[in-house]
Amino acid sequence: MNISPDARWVAYQSSDSGKYEVYLERFPDLGERQSVSGEVGGWNPVWSRDGRELFYRRLSDGAMMAVPIQTTPTLRVGTPEKLFDDPGTFQMRPPVPGGGSGRYWDLAPDGRFLMVKAVAAATSAEPQGFIHVQNWTDELKRLTQPR
Does the global pTM surpass 0.85? Predict the structure, then answer.
């Protein structure tokens, strides 16, 4: 679930129809919902920072979609357009009904897409290891201090 920047609308995915679709509803007075993704379905909706667009992943192939949204004086949902194909991000498939639905992408304040890229599976059965970095913000501050 994702609340619009003006906190008057909520975008979410639901599988009530038998497949995942993206919907909008007025918030907090939930009630009548409007489909955004249409018959092709979708998941992982995220509002643009100005609330004029909604982004989501297309159900069939994971492509990133954008839909123009007008919320005043009444709700108007535009026609979804494909922005780009799935760039091989982590969790490329939609969530399993009844299961979790983590989102592995977001928008930066400047509107760029931030995504976690999937790494090709290792060819050996040996563990490849895991690097956990703590206090990385302290290191970043140290590296970016004027000298």
Answer: no
